[in-house]
């Protein structure tokens, strides 16, 4: 089963998205902030990370940089999730090391397509 690390500080968003992903057959683990995301990426070996960019403490871009600089970061697909849909926001997320970018509110079919593109063995 594909394991997704969902990094989201908003409980309602986390609950809604995790339930929808679990119904699609994904195992979902959580991090509530950037520090926890870095630790969970190292400890739990997820297959993919859904990274909220607007996190308390270190933001999602900095958490992505830290994950990328560690042993778990090589080859780990990371999709940035944000309510900010400007081109500069996407550029900032990609510069930090995110492989893809999606906006909130989440369009689940679009997000699943991005997950399947980054993890082709799951589609």
From TrEMBL:
PROSITE patterns hit by this protein: RESPONSE_REGULATORY
InterPro entries: CheY-like_superfamily (IPR011006), Sig_transdc_resp-reg_receiver (IPR001789)
Source taxon at top rank: Bacteria
Sorted UniProt keywords: Phosphoprotein, Two-component regulatory system
SUPFAM superfamilies referenced in this protein's UniProt entry, alphabetically: CheY-like (SSF52172)
Pfam family, one: Response_reg
Residue span, Response regulatory domain: 3-119
Modified residues (4-aspartylphosphate): 52
PANTHER family per UniProt: HYBRID SIGNAL TRANSDUCTION HISTIDINE KINASE J
Name of this chain's protein: Response regulator
Source organism of the structure: Shinella lacus
Lineage of origin: Bacteria, Pseudomonadati, Pseudomonadota, Alphaproteobacteria, Hyphomicrobiales
